[in-house]
Design goal:
Blueprint lengths: L2 H13 L4 H12 L9 H12 L16 H31 L7 H19 L2 H7 L3 H19 L2 H6 L1 H29 L8 H12 L4 H10 L3 H14 L1
Helix pairs in contact: 1-2, 2-3, 4-5, 4-6, 9-10, 9-12
């Protein structure tokens, strides 16, 4: 029962100079008490105290809290099993695609879809703690996974080809990226003005989003180019643009 409602009702009743028994019956009807028939000051006082000192509702369990140590070890083992299984599935997919010479679909596409399926299952079937463990960490990617990929591409890259195409590389890396960022930022700003999804981006926010989307690392494209043995000039331009862009 709302305390303010009880207090306002009692005050209005007292202002009307109703009898003590009427007050007791009134408070009893508001609180659902059956002891309102005894019109004594103690009865009215106990009813008011019972109403105004109700305990606050218990807090709902927070899924973001870490589980006990034994449960934490179990959840961590499950998360590690999921990550290792995805890695093994990606390696086996790459091996069999190359062995059977399947060119219609690339291994990276299958890996992306496998990750999407596993992420969808985890989203609707488990708690939040295991989700945080298996969530993509950009720090691990940029500090541990991306450097070996760039090192491998740079080690196998023909330096003379990059030096020969340095004007094209610099044009795409700086001028092309700037144009792409401005175009994307303007389109995002126009979309924000339409109010379709209630997006309140400022022009600076739109340009920042355009810059983020423009300065991407075509690691997957380079892997496909290397596997398909494309023109070395095209490969050197794309890779050089990536290096200077970063």
């Amino acid at each position: 029962m709302d305390v303010s409602t009880v207090a306002a009702t009692v005050l209005s009743a007292a202002a009307g100079q109703e009898s003590l028994s009427s007050l007791a019956e009134l408070v009893g009807s508001l609180t659902g008490s059956t002891a309102a028939s005894e019109a004594t000051p103690e009865t009215v006082y106990e009813l008011l105290v019972t109403t105004t000192t109700t305990s606050p509702p218990e807090d709902e369990p927070d899924d973001t809290e870490e589980p006990p140590p034994e449960d934490e070890e179990k959840v961590s083992s499950q998360a590690l099993l999921i990550l290792v299984s995805l890695l093994i599935a990606a390696l086996l997919t790459s091996y069999y695609l190359q062995r059977w010479k399947i060119r219609t679909v690339h291994e990276t596409v299958l890996s992306i879809f496998a990750g999407m399926v596993v992420g969808l299952v985890l989203r609707f079937s488990t708690g939040s703690y295991i989700k945080r463990i298996v969530t993509f960490d950009h720090t691990i990617f940029f500090n541990m996974l991306l450097p070996p990929i760039i090192l491998n591409c740079g080690y196998n890259l023909q330096k003379t080809s990059v030096a020969r195409n340095i004007p094209s590389v610099l044009t795409f890396a700086f001028i092309g990226t700037a144009i792409s960022a401005v175009v994307i930022g303007v389109l995002v700003q126009i979309y924000s003005f339409t109010g379709i999804e209630s997006i309140g981006f400022s022009f600076l926010d739109s340009l920042i989003l355009g810059t983020i989307l423009s300065a991407t690392d075509p690691v997957t494209i380079l892997a496909v180019f290397e596997q398909l043995r494309v023109d070395p000039k095209l490969f050197s331009i794309i890779f050089g643009e990536t290096v200077f862009n970063d």
